[in-house]
Amino acid sequence: MELVVYLSFKGNCREAMEFYKSVFGGELTLNTYEEQGETRENNDWIIHSELSGGDIKLMASDGSGASDKSTKTEISLVGKDEAKMRKVYEKLSEGGQIYVPPEKQRWGDIYGRWHDKYGVLWSMNIGKA
Q1: CATH number at residue 55
Q2: Are 46 and 14 within 8 A, CB to CB?
Q3: Distance CA 94, CA 90 (A)
Q4: Residue 106 is part of which domain span?
Q5: pLDDT tens digits, residue range 12-58?
Q6: Count of CB atoms within 10 A of residue 50's CB?
């Protein structure tokens, strides 16, 4: 069994998924509504996308359930490689809204929380190596 996060965007899925590919690596597949034989006002919107083979696996589309500002999903990154995690944080938080910058917490780990520029809520916990 595998749990995969599926995000919904409102017209900017392609841009967001290309950004996530630049952060995490992997192979990105994108399918538009038009390519799948769907007729709609925004045929170039993404009906399905998948980023896999890098550090994470994400799926996303435009349309279904997307709000104007943000998703209702929080993605939590957990790891022990502080340098790598901070590099990911720097890329993902650029242009977004930071709520808790990654810093040592009372439980001893480094924790951070932010919305990225696409409205996706992220958190990060860096445990002891």
Answers
A1: 3.10.180.10
A2: yes
A3: 6
A4: 74-126
A5: 999 999 999 999 999 999 999 988 877 777 888 999 999 999 889 99
A6: 18
